[in-house]
Amino acid sequence: MLASLAAISLTGCAARNRVASPPIEGPVRLGEIAAVDGPRVRPDRVIEDSRCPADVQCIQAGRLVVRATVLGGGWSKEIDFRLGVPAPVADGTLTLVDAKPVPIRGETAASAARFTFEFQGGR
Fold first, then answer.
1. 36: buried, middle or exposed (CB in 10 Å: 19+, 13-18, 0-12)?
2. For residue 1, is pLDDT > 70?
3. What tens digit of pLDDT does each residue of 50-72 get?
4. Whole-angstrom distance, CA of residue 3 vs CA of residue 88
5. Is this model's pTM higher than 0.85 or not?
6. 3-state SS of the chain?
7. Any bridge partners for residue 115, and if so which?
8. Under a CB-based contact definition with an 8 Å cutoff, are residues 37 and 28 in contact?
């Protein structure tokens, strides 16, 4: 009887645990995991987005910095990625190559943004 109750209890706990979604090939939103031909990367939050809004002509381009968790075979590491700047990861480099949409004056769209990463090296 006790074994039956324990099995039922454990089944209930397992049902409540969130199942991780499979990695996505292509642009991902905050919290989603991207498959990038090597490690996987999950953008966690936007640290800075001072890019020039799409509806404004700017003298200085600004920058985008995204904190992401990079996941490999049995390891993980948090890295702050600057748009277009390669970061050393495992046996190659990982780059945040695109983020859309570009901000519009007076609006912040970090929650709607989709981020694209590329991995060079490995194999």
1. buried
2. no
3. 888 777 788 777 889 999 999 99
4. 50
5. no
6. CHHHHHHHHHHHHHHHCCCCCCCECCCECCCCCEECCCCEEEEEEEEEECCCCCCCCCCCCCCEEEEEEEEECCEEEEEEEECCCCEEECCEEEEEEEEECCCCCCCCCHHHCEEEEEEEECC
7. 28, 99
8. no
